[in-house]
């Protein structure tokens, strides 16, 4: 009789708590699951459900104010709970790899990216420094970074958010560990690169027997990639089973709510374009209005080593009407975020025109720009890097009100409470600091701050990519509600075409710094004219499950 196979990872009765302001707060309670060799297991749930805490407990990287109260963690039959710090250094990176959630704080800003990617190979004695540098270039290429040899010599600040995340993925996979813990590994990536990265992880799982513990808020990714799904709520597992069983026949009300809120699991019908269908399709919304923002012939060049020039944005033109949402989509490095920064005059264009409510922003003076900036606000991609860690949340939201002299202290405090309520955060969040909040909670704070001055235009740079699906749905509903009530316009930068389909009136598709297609959202996403656009649509997470169904 064959003995039962031992799982690679076993978590049994795990309980973790945090000490905050002298109080002990349970974060994970009685969590038990296993991961087999070569298996992909996804843990899904809302921000604060305990997903990342569970993952960090497995690899012994909990915050200083966290404590494992109970439970056992066994890896390849070995009990990890009693390992010394020195013993853990031999485990991390070599036997268990971690892809962290935040690319903005996980890379050393003063070390070249290639050197950091090859570091695990040197630390664990798998390659010399010179050989590790060569392998780092190969790993960056596998992770989908263009011109990897040149990029390996750059520093993290010279990478976009998506490219930094790909560098972290390359570093985590460098030593070919037995288990990879992927904590929201693709939340900052466009859909085509996301597919490429997940395909690469799948290949490792198939060929090397690498197991993957995938922490994600994207049920579309879990549907496509996971063998089993674990659903967490309030620190407990409420449902687990095979992906097909959990998604096709969810037993718990919370699981059903998550699936209902996931835009990527709704079918996207992509049809061949014809002159008739493209012209007669009903637009997402009809809001005829004079342009609030006009961008024409925009170009931006950056200097590269060796007197070379990188053209990041090339002859880009579009308008954003009053009360309208224009989505700008494309792969990482396509020029989306640079275009957004140019539109707000946070970068000086090399050529082209920018007009906001009739005012020429290219030639506007410093004082004129300052007065206009009350009317347009930006929500950054990373909620970790965009909030001052020294401030309380009340101070973060209050900052633009103080900067523009809006209201007295009492009125500003009332406005902070109102904004926290609008973005579905409890009132006592005002007293906390960013480090005490999850990634999704921090992004909601960033959105509240952007809305503080009642702007006419909000630029949202991947503003919902860090949010779990239910909170994402709340934020998207909030953005639509605010637009209807206040007439605010949105320039919505996103790699998630499923979200774009939900919120935008029009869409502009960017590739290699140029707009290759634009029009009404329903037209572009249903009858795309360009092969590049079709590739983006076909890479939407959840479509693999549609094809099987």
Radius of gyration over alpha carbons? 24 Å
Q: Per CATH, what is the topology of the largest domain?
A: Rossmann fold
Shape: globular
Helix/strand structural class: alpha/beta
CATH class term of the largest domain: Alpha Beta
Whole-number tally of structural domains: 3
Give a count of the beta strands, DSSP E runs of length 2 or more: 20
Report the biggest beta sheet as strand number plus sense, adding barrel if it closes. Answer: 6 strands, mixed
Q: Look at the structure and name the CATH superfamily of the largest domain.
A: P-loop containing nucleotide triphosphate hydrolases
**Number of helical stretches of at least 4 residues:** 22
Low-confidence stretches: 273-288
CATH architecture of the largest domain: 3-Layer(aba) Sandwich
What's this, in brief?
The protein is of the alpha/beta class.
